[in-house]
Design brief:
The complex is a heterodimer. By secondary structure, chain A is an all-alpha fold. Chain A has a single domain (59-338), classed as Orthogonal Bundle (ABC transporter involved in vitamin B12 uptake, BtuC), CATH 1.10.3470. Helices cover 76% and strands 0% of the residues of chain A. In chain A, helix 4 (59-84) crosses helix 13 (296-320) and helix 5 (92-109) packs parallel to helix 7 (148-168). The longest helix of chain A is centred in the N-terminal third of the chain and has 30 residues, at 10-39. Chain A is globular. Chain B is built from 17 helices and 20 strands. By secondary structure, chain B is an alpha/beta fold. The longest helix of chain B is centred in the middle third of the chain and has 16 residues, at 171-186. Chain B is globular. The chains are: A mainly alpha, B alpha/beta.
């Protein structure tokens, strides 16, 4: 009976409610972070204006904010993709490391070949590597019923340190003091959209991927099958969807998307594989996907929000003296509130009951 | 004197009124039925009585005293006891241990002998026929239910509320339960019996209160009304229970099971045929292999021994998709788990199971125009009530969900229909409708295997009936050769005089 009362016209109503929950979560975390900052003696106005200036203060600042957003979009899409299929991909970190190394190796190996050939080759190599790692994860879950989360966490370590081994040993740039590969030819780097910033055409690719993902889930049979498995595995199975291949496919595509994070970092920013380059993108990606409700447009917006925070954090730190960790606190709180939608509905109910009495 | 008096009870959830000024009075020492369809507000009303919900309006009087601050604790102190639909027993413990849990005598240690004696004495005084030192895991469903009742009695309940207690019982067990009710009444207990079954109401109760759409329609003397009148009150208009099953000659064998072992420890295997244009009913208490049969036919559970054939072709090792495409329409016993994607739109739910059909999904791209047209058609002709086809299916009532599932499956071009518990949890209107649809499919020449725990279902629809017990077919005959009694015995595992 309680089900009948929330009858309304479905998709839009629930979509709006989801956005509303995300907005409430962001506002709540802003309030709490502000309280903590004020309690530790910071000037709030000063801090937030520094954050804002850091993110939007100049053309270059805006470009760099977007550049920080790009990897979060890719990894956020990766997590959103697997979440749609009901699988939690906590292995993005390992997948993006493998993708980055494969792309760097491809570009270095093809040294001398034309740009039009090398860039696609690097992308293909990187995505294939991510696909393999993700797919392996899916395969172990589908065929041997091994918990995907445990395997993913272990694979994260394996890929992180396997790539580390390569750049400490066989692939190390002999002239560099740190563990990294040799730099690829500058001509193989992605085109910068704004000169002297890190913003490249990777942003356009990210936007294209978002659109493709929307259409994939809304319009194609395979997308529907993955969504169906994510919504109700038993019903999906009874309708004739082959469970194992769908799980493997979901994880493989998710791994490929995660790998794009690494590929575009290498081809867009560093020009080589640097040991331990990721500041934990794989884990931030989970947060981005959750805040964006696994919806491509939502992921774009939440990635942007996280990008703004990251890029404004430095300025906030040296102008207002607020530790950059404060940004992590804020991000953490956002996730906490998004992940506990029951809290919001609980508060609502309490309010309703008080009115009733 | 009234044991329970509820006057003008109103309970709203948001804009939805679950109970609308309901009056419900139960005399001391009587058996009082609370009758109503699913969603009529029975459970809400009882939850208010039991202190789990607070009424928005109205007065609650228990044993002549007006209750203002009510809670589950208070309900207990007032001598109310409730037996829920789902048992809350610890399987690994014995009966007496289950009974005293939460209410153990003594402060530091339990006086074992004395506890057993007390619990046994209560059981005997109501002819429960239980040995309280037995483990709960070894009891039948009917016995477990008695343990639940025993629990409330041990705690000193004077008024006992039972929520749909007969749903899980065989006909014989139902009779025994009703006898226990009569015994309890003799000893002065008051019984509130929540049900939607008319015959039981008529058989045992003194008074009936009928709820319909959140309102109390009538409270009547059971002796003064007929079963048909009760049904009319429940639904709000005249209902006929008559269904016409025109005799017809069944055609070729569509589905055939040969020596299939349903349960690993079953002694015998199962063989049966379903022919075009006939309904074969599988009767039996749930948990006797029905679920396994269902899943094996669809390929969701591996059929390790025996052969399943569809149109003469062995399908035992085929994947689900191939079987469905060969021609199986499937109405799962668990609607929420197997039939629908609750958060998705009705439209997307029409796609489920049709997503491999090139008509709806040409070249892997979903054609929503074709799908929408089809969905609108089916919703109209099967009377699926919703705002539009974009509404999420989870927000529909159970009856409408089931009509949607049935329309999806019936419209498939499949020769074999597997209908499992098709009327579970539905109200009378929807039940009649769904039975008619099944008969229509039979007329269209489809082969139908009906698995149902409701005997009415089985008797009204089936041409032939098989009884399943512990994974074995006890007997299989023409519908006319069985009586409720003979089937009841077979359902309980007693072969012989049937």
């Amino acid at each position: 009976m309680s089900r009948e009362k929330k009858a309304g016209s479905g998709r839009w109503a629930s979509g709006l409610q989801n956005i509303w929950l995300s907005v409430v979560a962001i506002l709540l975390s802003l309030v709490i972070t502000s309280v903590i900052m004020a309690a530790s003696g910071n000037n709030l106005a000063e801090a937030y204006s520094a954050l804002f200036k850091g993110a939007f203060g100049s053309r270059n600042a805006i470009a760099n904010t977007l550049a920080k957003t790009v990897p979060l979009i890719f990894v956020g899409m990766a997590c959103a993709f697997s979440n749609k299929g009901g699988i939690f991909n906590i292995g993005c970190e390992g997948q993006l490391y493998s993708g980055a190394l494969a792309a760097a190796v491809a570009a270095i190996f093809l040294q001398g070949a034309p740009r039009i050939l090398v860039i696609p080759a690097a992308f293909v190599a990187g995505m294939a590597a991510g696909m393999l790692v993700g797919g392996l994860n899916g395969f172990l879950k589908a065929k041997l019923q091994i918990n995907e989360v445990l395997v993913a966490i272990m694979l994260n370590y394996i890929m992180r340190y396997l790539t580390s081994y390569f750049v400490h040993g066989p692939l190390k740039d002999p002239e560099a003091s740190v563990a990294q590969t040799v730099a690829m030819d500058d001509s193989y780097m992605l085109t910068k959209l704004v000169p002297k910033t890190q913003l490249t055409t990777a942003l356009l690719l990210a936007l294209v991927i978002a659109v493709l993902m929307y259409f994939f889930f809304m319009k194609t049979r395979t997308g529907f099958n993955i969504r169906a498995v994510g919504e109700n595995r038993l019903a999906a199975q009874a309708s004739g969807i082959a469970m194992s291949s769908t799980i493997v496919l979901t994880m493989a595509v998710s791994g490929a998307l995660a790998a794009l994070t690494g590929v575009t970092e290498v081809l867009g920013k560093t020009g080589k594989f640097v040991d331990g380059f990721s500041p934990g993108y794989g884990f931030t990606g989970i947060a981005v996907a959750v805040l964006g409700r696994n919806n491509p447009a939502g992921v774009l917006l939440s990635a942007l929000l996280f990008g703004i925070m990251e890029s404004g954090a430095m300025k906030m730190s040296y102008v207002a003296g607020v530790s950059t960790s404060m940004i992590k606190v804020m991000q953490g709180l956002v996730i906490l509130f998004v992940a506990t939608p029951n809290l919001v509905s609980f508060l609502k109910r309490r309010k309703g009951e008080k009115k009733g009495e | 004197m009234y044991a329970v008096e509820m006057r003008g009870i109103t309970k709203r959830f948001g804009s939805f009124t679950a109970n609308d000024h309901i009056d419900f009075c139960v005399e001391k020492g009587e058996i009082h039925c609370l009758l109503g369809e699913n969603g009529a507000g029975k459970t809400t009303l009882m939850n208010i009585l039991f202190g789990l919900y607070h009424a928005d309006e109205g007065e609650l009087i228990i044993n002549g005293k007006s209750v203002t601050k009510h809670s589950a604790r208070n309900a207990f102190l007032c001598g109310l006891g409730m037996v829920h639909q789902h048992f809350m027993l610890v399987d690994a413990l014995s009966i007496w241990e289950n009974v005293i849990i939460g209410n153990e005598p003594g402060r530091f240690s339990i006086d074992r002998k004395e506890s057993i004696r007390q619990v046994q004495a209560i059981a005997d005084s109501y002819n429960f026929n239980l040995n309280v030192e037995e483990k709960v895991s070894e009891l039948s469903v009917g016995m477990k239910q008695r343990v639940e009742i025993l629990k409330t009695l041990y705690r000193g309940a004077e008024t006992i509320i039972l929520d749909e207690p007969t749903a899980v019982l065989t006909p014989q067990e139902v009779d025994q339960l009703l006898d226990i009710f009569r015994d309890m009444k003799k000893q002065g207990k008051t019984i509130i019996f929540i049900t939607h079954k008319l015959n039981e109401t008529k058989a045992v109760s003194d008074h009936v209160t009928v709820l319909r759409a959140g309102k109390s329609v009538h409270t009547v003397n059971t002796a003064d009304v007929t079963v048909n009148e009760l049904a009319g009150m429940m639904v709000g208009h005249e209902v006929s229970f008559e269904l016409e099953r025109v005799a017809n000659e069944p055609g070729e064998v569509v589905l055939s099971l040969q020596n299939v072992r349903l349960l690993p420890n079953a002694q015998n295997t199962v063989s049966l045929d379903v022919r075009a244009g006939e309904i074969v009913g599988i009767a039996g208490v749930e948990g006797n292999g029905q679920k396994q049969l269902e899943e094996m036919l669809l390929g969701l559970l591996k059929c390790k021994e025996g052969k399943i054939s569809l149109y003469g072709e062995e399908i035992s090792s085929w994947p689900t998709r191939k079987r469905v495409e060969k021609g199986i329409s499937y109405i799962p016993s668990d609607r929420y788990q197997r039939a629908i994607l609750p958060g998705f739109s009705i439209l997307d739910n029409y796609l489920l199971g049709n997503q491999f059909d090139e008509h709806y999904v040409p070249h892997g791209m979903i054609d929503y125009r074709v799908l929408e047209e089809r969905a609108k058609d089916l919703m109209k002709s099967y009377d699926v009530r919703a705002v539009d086809e974009k509404q999420s299916i989870g927000s529909l009532s159970g009856g409408n969900q089931q009509k949607m599932v049935l329309s999806r499956e019936a419209s498939k071009d499949a020769g074999f229909v597997l209908a499992c518990q098709p009327i579970r949890g539905l109200d009378i209107g929807a039940i009649q409708y769904i039975r008619e649809i099944l008969l229509k499919l039979r007329r269209q020449g489809k082969a139908i295997l009906l698995i149902s725990a409701e005997l009415t279902d089985i008797f009204q629809l089936s041409d032939r009936i098989a009884v399943l017990y512990k994974g074995e077919l006890m007997d299989m005959r023409k519908n006319e050769e069985f009586t409720t009694q003979s089937i009841g015995l077979l359902m309980a595992g007693q072969k012989g005089e049937a």
